[in-house]
Amino acid sequence: MREPAVRTLGLNVWFGQNQVLHSVSITVPRGAVYAVLGPSGCGKSTLLRTINRLVLLREGAKVEGLVEVLGVDVYRDHSAEEALSRVGMVFQTPNPFPHLSIYDNVAIGPRLRGMARGRELDKLVRWALEKAALWDEVKDRLKSPASSLSGGQQQRLCIARALATMPELLLMDEPTANLDPVNAAKIEELIRELSREVTIILVTHDAEQAKRLASAGALLFMGRVVSEGPISSILSRSYSSIIQSLVHAARTSHPTGKPHAGER
Amino acid sequence: MKPRSIRRKLADRAVHLLTAASALAILGVVGHILLSAVVEGLPALLLGASFLLEPPGPPGGDVGGVGPSLAGTLVTVAIATLASAALGIPAGVMLSEERGSPLAKAAEKAVELIAESPSIVVGLVVFTLLVVPMRRPSALAAAVSLGVVALPYVAAQVRESLAAIPLAYREAAFSLGLRKWEAVFLVLLPMNARGVATAVLLGSMRALGETAPVLFTAGAAFHAFYGIDKPSSTLSLLIFLFAGTPYENWRRLAWGAVLLLTLLSASLAFATRRLAGRVRM
Amino acid sequence: MRKSIDAIYLAVASTTAIVVAVAATIVLALSMESADVLAREGLSFVLSPLWSPSEEGYGSYGIALPLAGTLVVGALATSIAVALSVATVVYLHEYAPRQVREAVSVAMFAMAALPTVVFGMWGLSAVAPLVREAGLGALCARGSPTGQSVFTAALVVGLMLTPYASSVVSAAYDAVPFTYVEALHSLGALGFERARVLLGMVKRSVAAAALLSFGRAVGETTIVALTIGSAFNPPLCPFEPAHTVSSLIASQYGNAFLYPGLTSALSAAALLLLATSAVTTTLGSRIARAAAVAARGEGA
């Protein structure tokens, strides 16, 4: 049995003096769609960025603990870069490079890695765009700038861009949050298709979406893992009641320094 | 590691070194300029009061001093600062507060034009308009040309700092029951004293550092300060004209002036920075 | 009450009007002074290489050689400034540790505060001798014996322009939305690969920096006068001395009273400088503003 796609153990992350992740330990099985759920500010985006080390770009970021991606300790191992080259990411707001053409956006990853050239590259770009369900809409204007696409198309372009490097793990940070329902549905369909070939970690604040797409996941609250496991067990109650009780518990206990209910 | 990734790493290394070399070059150049100024100029400066008060020595003789030129610099910069402030502050206020009006639009273009004018061009114009009728160069003409050169910087800085006042404060100022222009001058401008002070400092910094405008207007009187309406000189002019002479003592003198001018300019620059953080020069 | 308000407005408005008048005066005075020589010489003012104020009668005035010098020094200095700026910005943003960023930033600030005559003095006493000792003059037919040359002038002017060009490029680079930086990192792009894409996004600002620097280079007098060698020489080989329009004007400062047509000729030359500087700077500012607007739009 292969090692999990991602495994973290006792992961702590600080931004300066502010600790945003507390002893986070999760295991993402291969081939799963793994949801990271939680209210805004709970640290789910930070957790995602810790996996591919993007968190280090932020001011004063400090990471402690184990983060294993595709079997490699990405904060200590020399072969971290090689492992991370098999990880792709899609962001909340579509961010195709506006000054590059649709073709060049998809081709940028493969070009950097020297994966293909000329005809081979054309085929790879086509493959990625087909997988992202965008090919038919753009096949006649591959040279147009990416900025000429609509929001939903841009997000699919970003998915194609990530897929073109043939990742084994795809990190998706609330990919449908800024899209209209029609385009969101298209992306969800895509995620279902892709999950057959890649492991996907899906950060979302939408519990229904998690139920629709994910097989397993983790619920985060204020930088801590509250529950982890199959989706059905995490979301055994309604999401809003879970969050409500978590908020209530935070208010009436001390760990985060919030005042006692009676101390106002 | 795969060969392609090795090549990429090497290329990245190369670019890293190349760009670092560029940054290092800049550090080196600034360092060398400042070092030269200190090493070459300190001996003259260490002559103390005589350097600041005496006129230059004879060619091939004593170093002497930059007294008259320093006086010239102080006088012309003072007048230029006053003039550029007197014109630039109101103009800056107009540019900020009456943006759409025809006068403001014309002023916008005017300030741009003066800012784009090479300073030697300004000097030449003042030459034809002041020096020729007066039949001689003068500290006054120099001050006028320096004032014109400094003017756009003052106006632009005042405009920017007024524009940067948060809307909430503006609304508060205008809701006090004063008429518009009273509010501007009695409330907004004092609120923005820092910005105005920065503007004036910037103007004087400009005036201090310029040579080309005084070339045609100040004259070349290095041995005494004769008065505002008579030929004079400035530190920058002294440096410019004494830099290439074959006489060792005059070159020494020029370096002393370089150090002095750099110190003066640096003080103004740091005062500006203290007042306003980063400023586009 | 009304009277005092109007008084303030009147004061401000009339002062502003004076500012407008100053600008108008510059243009008018130059035009009127230049009329004479331009009427006599016509186009040959710009095309003729013959500059001879002492010639029979009015004198003969052609600024073709210094004009070529202005363009060559301007282009060279701009290239140097833009190259150094882009390289430094890339270094600071992609490779440099925090302390180095601070140090370079302070150095740039100090550099921007230096009067141009200090640069000129340094150019004359440190750079020209280097050029001379390196024997670079020998590479040219009329190589400079003193080390003062087109190259020397362009190098020092380029250095002088670098802080300003840097600030324009750096501001644009900083303004690129962080999400694109994250995207590049997530694709595994290395420093120079990221720089390539990000610079592509700020192309227009780099162009603006180039134009604005060129405008300043065209007008630069002090540095050039001290380092270019003041010779009526076509600027074909960089290690030869030459003139620019600005250094020509500066060199005549003592003679202005002596020759009948000289003031007019200098004014015409100045008018040309003003026009060139104004056009390039306005173009550069326009592009810079368009780039800023576009950047805000794309980031949204």
From TrEMBL, chain A:
UniProt keyword annotations, A-Z: ATP-binding, Nucleotide-binding, Transport
InterPro entries recorded: AAA+_ATPase, ABC_transporter-like_ATP-bd, ABC_transporter-like_CS, P-loop_NTPase, PstB-like
Superkingdom per UniProt: Archaea
Domain ABC transporter per the UniProt entry, residue ranges: 6-247
GO CC annotation terms, alphabetical: membrane
GO MF annotation list: ATP binding; ATP hydrolysis activity; phosphate transmembrane transporter activity
UniProt-listed GO biological process terms: phosphate ion transmembrane transport
Database matches in Pfam families: ABC_tran (PF00005)
Protein name: Phosphate ABC transporter ATP-binding protein
Lineage: Archaea, Thermoproteota, Thermoprotei, Thermofilales, Thermofilaceae
TrEMBL record, chain B:
Cellular component terms (Gene Ontology): plasma membrane
GO BP: any one term: transmembrane transport
Keywords of this entry: Membrane, Transmembrane, Transmembrane helix, Transport
Residue ranges crossing the lipid bilayer per the database entry: 72-93, 113-132, 138-156, 183-205, 253-271
Domain ABC transmembrane type-1 positions: 70-276
CDD domains associated with the record: TM_PBP2 (cd06261)
Name the record gives this protein: ABC transporter permease subunit
TrEMBL record, chain C:
Main location: membrane
GO CC terms: plasma membrane
Lineage top rank: taxon: Archaea
Domain ABC transmembrane type-1: 67-284
Keywords, comma-separated and alphabetical: Cell membrane, Membrane, Phosphate transport, Transmembrane, Transmembrane helix, Transport
Protease keyword on record: no
Residues annotated as transmembrane: 7-30, 63-92, 104-124, 257-279
Presence of the UniProt keyword Oxidoreductase in the record: no
PROSITE patterns referenced in this protein's UniProt entry, alphabetically: ABC_TM1
Subcellular location: Cell membrane
Mode of membrane association: Multi-pass membrane protein
BP GO terms, sorted: phosphate ion transport; transmembrane transport
Recorded family membership: Belongs to the binding-protein-dependent transport system permease family. CysTW subfamily.
Alphabetical list of PANTHER family matching this protein: PHOSPHATE TRANSPORT SYSTEM PERMEASE PROTEIN PST, PHOSPHATE TRANSPORT SYSTEM PERMEASE PROTEIN PSTC
The protein's name: ABC transporter permease subunit
Provenance organism: Thermofilum pendens
